[in-house]
Amino acid sequence: MLTVNRYKCGYCGACVGVCPAAALELVETWIEVNDDCTRCGRCAKICPLGALELDKEAKR
Amino acid sequence: MKCDLVVVGAGPAGSMTAKAAAEAGLEVVMMEKRQEIGDPVRCAEGVSKAALKKLVEPDPSWISAEVKGARIRAPDGTEIVISEDRAGAEVGYVLERKVFDRALAQEAAEAGAKVMVKTRALGLLTEKGVPAGVVAQFVGEELKIEAPLVIGADGVESKVGRWAGIDTALKPKDIETCAQFLVQDERIDDDYCEFYLGNDIAPGGYVWSFPKGRALANVGIGILGSKADSGTPIRLLRDFMKANFPEGKVLEMMVGGVPVSGPIERTVADGVILVGDAARQSDPITGGGIINAMKAGKMAGKIAADLVPRGEVDKRSLMVYEELWRETIGKHISRNFAVKEFFVDLTDDDLNRMIHSLDGIDVAELDLKGLLKVLVRQNPKHLLKLRHLIV
């Protein structure tokens, strides 16, 4: 599962821009994740603050 | 609600679009999902003086500083200096985006556009399978806005294109992931924009320091997504601060992603046009997006005003916009994308050698293109791949 640390997130939307499944959305100051997430990890990789994390077993 | 044109996003691209279309007589609704236009900032705020002046009358209220030039520092510390009127092709003004963006939105409003804040587009309305406006959330309530044409100016996180079947997802190698501090430090040079290169400093990108007057500067970092890992930008920016501005006080923190994909395959669909970062029109070398966004917005707004009254909003008709931006700003973006693809893989030795090759050459009067030309001339073997791009 993809988790967003809302206390770390800078709500810049970079993760939304790289999401190949359009599963993310930036709403004012938080990121929403919908069921289309394929756990590809692109968002976590490019997050400037490291606010996104994939569960270990989901990483591939 | 009904109108002629819905513009999604009230950044520079959206406001220029809305203004141009409203001036030409269209009934325009421009929506912004944030409750404050222009805030939070996700930008280094540097912009070409000459280019900006052609698009809007400069106003002291949104100009933080004017610079005399730019300094580029190689990994080994060697520096070159470029004077303002040339480097000014890329930098010259450092803006106050919070004021600038709202001033542009105000111009759109004065031209007759309706501006709606805290209004987020949720999807496209369709009529017989063709886009026919936007479903939005206006302060938490659903709102349908019918319009024959929707212009997506919704930035790096754009959804409008995706809803219309345009794949705008950026690969990690096509985004610069960025962090920035607004720094107060007596060491800041108020007169020069500075660029620091190096694979340890900023892999596949650079660190910048853009002065904002009174010993303030935007000190930021961009790292190529493919060379980044979770949180790399903020970590490396802190490292840079420690090494270069150990006493610096951080008054603001900003983060963001800059598209460096070069032109994407398509920026129009039936009833839909994309402009600015949403259309990935930012410059792949500098990361600058304001000027291209404003130019594209102006083009799109004018074209919308021409085509909407005639009911010609299908993909084929909208190709006028596609062709116009590709012939103008697109050429520059394509070339700089190819140059970027080459530059991001250079080693520190390569970068040092390149800056050294300029030793004894007067580069003060060169713009970016001129500088690249000299580099190719001085490093014929190394930069062979670039030759056809620059001449």
From TrEMBL, chain A:
It comes from the Archaea. Residues 1-28, 29-57 form the 4Fe-4S ferredoxin-type domain. It holds the Pfam family Fer4_7. Keywords: 4Fe-4S, Iron, Iron-sulfur, Metal-binding. The keyword Ribosomal protein does not apply. This is 4Fe-4S binding protein.
